[in-house]
Predict the structure of Carrier domain-containing protein.
Amino acid sequence: MILEPAENLMFLPFWILGDILYGRLDEQMERYLDKLQKLRHELWKDGLAGGLARYSIGRLIPGARLKTLNTFKALWNDFNDQAYERAMKLGMPDAPPIVKMYRQIQTGQISKLEFLHTMDETLFANLDVTVGNLSWNPVFLAAYPSVQEEIRQEERRVRENLDDDEWKAYLSGTSTMLMASILETARLKPMASFSIPQATPTQRIVGDYIIPEGTQFVVDSHGLNIGDANRGAGRAKYHPRRFLNQNAVSRRYKFWRYGFGPRQRTSWPEDALLLPSPDFEANSARSSAGRVTEKIPWGKVHDFCHIQNISPSIVYHAAWALVLSQYTACNNILFGVVLANRHLPVAGILETVGPLMNMLPICLHIDREQYASEFLQYVSHNFNMLSEYQWSKAEHGFSRNFSSAMAIQFDYESDNPKSPDSLSSHTRIQSGVPVAIFVGPRDRVQFNYSKDRFYNRDIRHMCDAFLSVIGALLIPNQKLESFFTQLIGPSVRQTLAEFGNWASEKTRSYGSETLVSLFTEKCQSAPQSVAVIKGSSEMSYCEIDECSKKVAQKLLKCIAPGDVVCVQADRSTNWIVAALGVVKAQGVYCPMDPNYPPALRDLFCSTANARVFLATDEASKTSKPSSCQIFYSVDEMVATQVPKIGWHSSVNPKANAYMCFTSGSTSFPKGVICTHGGIVGFEKDYVARMTVEPGRKVAQVMSPAFDGSVHQIFSTLSYGGTLILNDSNDLFDNLKCPDVALLTPSLARMLDSINYQNLRAIWLLGEPLVREIADEWASVIPTYNMYGPTETSIGAAYAQIYPGDPIKIGKPTRCVRIYILDPHRNLILPGMTGDVYIAGIQVSCGYIGRQDETGASFFTDSVCSGPGQNMYKTGDRGYWTTRGEVALLGRADRQIKLRGFRLDLNDLEVRILRGYSLATAVALARVDDTLVALVKPEDINIDDFRLRLRDVLPSYAIPGPIRAVCVFPMTNRGKTDYTAIADMFTSCLNKRIWPVASPPFEDIRSKIIDIWRTVLKLDINQPVNDTDHFVHMGGHSIEQLELANRLSTAFSKNIGTLQVVNFPHLRDQVALFSCHTENVSDYGTKDAAQSLSSLRHSNASPIEGVNMANLTDAWNTVLARHDIFRSLYCVQGSQLVRIMSSSCPKVRYVSDIGIQETINDQFDLSKDVPIRVYLSLDLLILVASHIILDLTSLQIVLREVELHVKGGRLPPVTRRYGDITRWNQPAASEDV
């Protein structure tokens, strides 16, 4: 018989793999798959034939090839759907891969297209490789009878035992002659010497090289397998034993380098435990090591393992893997395991005295759809694989930097009963692992931990969870998903309920009051009380009530209940009248900041479906959004007469009251509508409403478009207080007389708390509170940290802050429930870090017209279910403290709070790219309270870019420092590294070096000092130093405005108050006005806060302690004494000639230097002298063309500069370039 391997075996692996992927195929499915493989074969041949078929453009060219491709895609999709339905209908006990993958599609882990591509590549694309190997292997075996005979003998030895399990292990083994022959065949006869060109889907970093996205590459199979000299002299010959004769070190290295270890580990997250450190809370001195000991159901575990034929250690390690998955919020986990090393092939290994233990990392994946029995088998398989390499060392390619490890101890306790006087044996093991679990002897488990890293309470919860999961694993028919809900026992749930305010009925039902009824009640009880003050004018409750009634009467003719009405929020008394008039007319109040760009105001109004716009006066009618067909001014509305109507009786507590916008994630804003009952419920809390009561004065400081301003208005007017509006250009003028104020931490940072002792208390809201601000204010007046996303009716929690105490947001307010959940929305143990959710009547129903966004953030309450009970995912990460308060740790997404405004940085990046077509990419990051940006390409005009941003973004969302670059910093996984971007700017924003001032700086410094003396009315003899702070010397808001005006006039620059606030020290302002305006990004105008690049990859020289005057004079002297530095190269006719510039190059002063941009800024030698020297307060850069400066010349120049700085005399220039014959000859193009 003549064997034709390629023909006879071509489809054997195809059908075997089909059965594996889809379960045992019936005749109908086999016919369907056979039809598909023929179509796929034709497409493969077209691809190998070359031409356009290899490129994506081939899909756009009509013809037979495209028709075949589309037919295959449609049939391939249909076949997989049918195969899945068949597998589900048959209820196969061992679910084939297609079932598991369809579950991943349904849960959003992969897309349908990704699934189809994966299955196609698995079944079809690798077929030729397999067939090629199966075809060539018999050929080689026929040519080498000795190898053939060795494999036969190997098979006979296994067959003699007639053990199916051993036979299967042999067929899948990696250390057999059979496998060695397959590997050697694949090495010598790959499918092709070179692969078809492929493209990298994302940017990759290989060593120190960046491989850009889309780079074409091929794999040189011949070079890797045969051409590699490391394979030895016989690398071109058939020698299967090369795979059996690998030494132990080689096998170890390949296992960790390519197999079980880093191959999986590279794509997995860090294994840090999501638990707070004791540093977050006040704690007393403590020892470094802690221990928690409990008993495990030792007997039940052993009985179960005996039935399941597995080791008890598998149960313990599997249980810890599941617990660790919860504590790391990740399904891919890593921890250390301690292995005994007693099965090494060394004589007498079992009798050897002393420890041979080794700690290795194990990587496991948690599939929550798996059954317990399946997971235990999976863990057992991984441990068997790991045990083969338990003698590995870290230098073979793995790390022992894991957060937890487990060891199983031998049972050395006696089974005999102990006498009362006998000592109990125990171990006290120390390890460098933060959490070390020791199971045994017998029924004991011991958790050792670092008290500097973890609380005892949290480790006890962890130990309880471990015991709970062990018990669950002993029920093999449970899905893993159910395990995580069992971690929370009744007592822990009760604790969480008390922390989260779950039992309060006020979170579930609205009261009878509304904003209108509360205001009306105050009008009736104290009609002459002052409601609003603006400068010298006042409005009483009865006056503002009458005016707002007139506005409402007019609105009733043009709006229906629940319609949104946009109001010009210009901080006038008419603004307050309009807001009240809208809610009285059963409308929804939506503030429009007049400082927003017109395009943004139009977008807000169209998103809200608002048809009516209320201007505060006739002049502001011109700012009407284009989508509003109806518009009035409040002045004209209050001039009408209206009948008396009981407005409060017609408003329902469940009715919508106001609407505010937050930043979206797809470049469209998200409109949030909140109800009367929600805000009324929140403000029922005396402290939450800023202790407002009759006569209490409240400063209106917050931005009108921010929901904090809604709180200021309605909490004041609903409870008889007086609202103080601003009546000057000074942003903080109205803070000098009120009793309470609501500020963002960024605003509070600008103020000196000592000067506002008229305030009885202050509430800080809108962004994370930092220690510095909290301590400053809390040491002077009662200070409260308030927390609440816009979606939860202003506030959901608050806490009074005391100096030195940890920052927390406190406990829930009376009408909300707070949950902290895992990524699967299951409750987690107190102390664990999770996602913060808010539920209750204050929660909005979602985003207007944004179903996708609503579905991603608003969910049916999974903890306290009930009619209409929803919960909102805030995107914040936090944990419950031991006192039952919530401590926040940051965001889970790219949303930030900046000076009280919520910004989605993804959204801003999209908006910027749409608003400025010349930008190809933009990346935003936050540095303290400043937004910074990188933009591509690197030759973009920053001034024009910033100007265009003002048309598409509100002022608070426009980045400060902006840099144009050619490439963004990337993480190891090919994603934009936003942390690195922030670091690029941090050096200039927070870490400046201030040397002795040189003459150009000194002139500016003197001028600014004179302005400070004038504004602050300082004595002429009082010194003003570089470190002096304008506010600390007595300059407050009015003086800051005057300072900004005087600086603008003196330096012919438009300086705003914000810049004076952001640069309060004298040295800051000197730097601001000393910047060279060319190639420097502005910040408001020309910014002194442009980022400094890292010094690691440049030869730029930092300056420390050098006299700037001497350094500047030295460089200018050396640049002027060499004519070559004035060279220009111009074309005259067909000749390239040198001419001399009339001016010498001089030092260029800049505030900050972008190193990479500066050194890569090309010379135009027809216009630019070929040398540049840049000097900032802390850096000097010399950039020169090679045409005039080589290493020798550079050394001469640097020596001359050094000599001049040290006060020496420069020698005369004895030889000039113009004196050399070559200098006067025409230069050819090759010379340049």
User: Anything to note?
Assistant: The chain is about 35% helix and 15% strand. The chain has a mean pLDDT of 78.
